[in-house]
Amino acid sequence: MKLYGISDLHLANRVNCEALEALPPHRDDWLIVAGDIGELDEHLKFALYILSHRFKKVLWVPGNHDLWTLPAHPSRLRGEARYRHQVSICREFGVLTPEDPYAIWHDETENRDYCLVPMFLLYDYSFRPDYVSEDKAVDWAAESGVVCTDEELLHSDPHDSPAAWCAQRCDYTEKRLQNISADTPIIMINHFPLREEMAQLPRFPRFSVWCGTKRTWDWHIRFPVSIVVYGHMHMRDTQYRDGVRFEEVSFGYPRDWNSVRGLEYYLRQILPFKKNSSL
Q1: What is the reported pTM?
Q2: Which of 29, 113, 199, 210 has the maximal Cβ count within 10 Å?
């Protein structure tokens, strides 16, 4: 039995949908889906129908694209209401979310249990230089020609701002983390990276303001964390901090992956440990 991770399926792209449809069954394995399945309910339902039939168990966290409210959305749900609606869709397929009790995954190789912790934390514009204030963060990024589409399509209702929503989500998650036994290693799952240095795009460094929160920079040592799984950056990678393994598990847009290899190649094996290719 294996535990895999993938994120950023971006099913608005037809070739990505075809890659998902071609994914072979993994009947005994579990899959972490770390956000950005797509912008529409249809994308989420399409993905979860396939994945819930091909894996023994699926876990989901939302990405920013999942939270967008497009003009064509029939329901026009925004912010918290949109997120809760997606949680309800996940539950229709038996998929675990950040609102459910944490699951325990047993690694037969190590004969060890891990607590799988899906998290929805969002971002608060704090991945920026100290001399830039929060209210100037978007302007600072815009000076480099970068403005995330979230500013138009991701709404925080009923919270005053994405930063306020992020603070609420961090408070909620910290309380839940404190109730996990210190003897049980944790696998943290979030769409956004937990540390600022992992939120740097070489071509667009100021995009970092939409990539996480400084509140989580030490969560991997404050809690008994063994592995952190995340996406968003479209830069598959394995890094270590303080002995903790950080796995970026993005699939990405068609330009980010090789269609000859297909989606199966880009599933990143989280446990049992196997060195993943970052290609």
Answers
A1: 0.96
A2: 210
